[in-house]
Amino acid sequence: MAMTSYAPPTDPWTEIVYEDEHLLAVNKPPGLLSVPGKEPQHYDSMWSRLTETYPEIQAVHRLDMSTSGLMVFAKNKLAESALKKQFQYRLTHKVYYARVWGHVTEDEGDVDLPLICDWPNRPRQKVCYEHGKPSKTIYQVVKREAQTTVVRLFPVTGRSHQLRVHLQAIDHPIVGDEFYAHEAAQQFSSRLQLHAAELSFYHPESCRLQQIFVPCEFYTEATAAITDYFQPERELPDYKTLPRP
Q: What residues does the Pseudouridine synthase RsuA/RluA-like domain cover (predicted)?
């Protein structure tokens, strides 16, 4: 499915939330690509905007265009290699917030369903028990509302559209989701209410555990939650000796 129109927000042009000599963290708005698309009209992206000031900046992970929130970029080769390896070997931990349709019954749980690209309808993904890649998402209910539920999400794996498909699969699609929500849930919000709020990783230079949090626009009560679920004392594997991604 081709992108029919692309009009990303421009104010603010970039929102930098953390910077040092090795890396840069930004709060990506919904509607902006993480990296340039294939067509010239889709060049505007979080990466291309940052290269105006930081020509050597490199993306080490991505968010869906419709998803808002935290992205980390590498400012040099050392940081790029270290961060890419951490994402590949699941040494990072991420926390998202989402508003989903309906009332999620259990206070917490997990969705463990294999995913694969739905090629005739790409970029959509789908559950496929025969050929899908293992995919797991942990969720916690934060607040039950009149028609919706706010959930905190901990993706164990990082498949494309994983959170969106997993929530649809348990009959609680994310509101405003143009790909996976039914009409009522889609019309409930003018944007996909999915936000990457928090990321933990090991700093490329010091190897110390670092956590960054950015507030959530559609749920202002969101708080940092990684240390509530994951143990911050976890040991750092010698990722510098691991193969390149």
A: 22-169
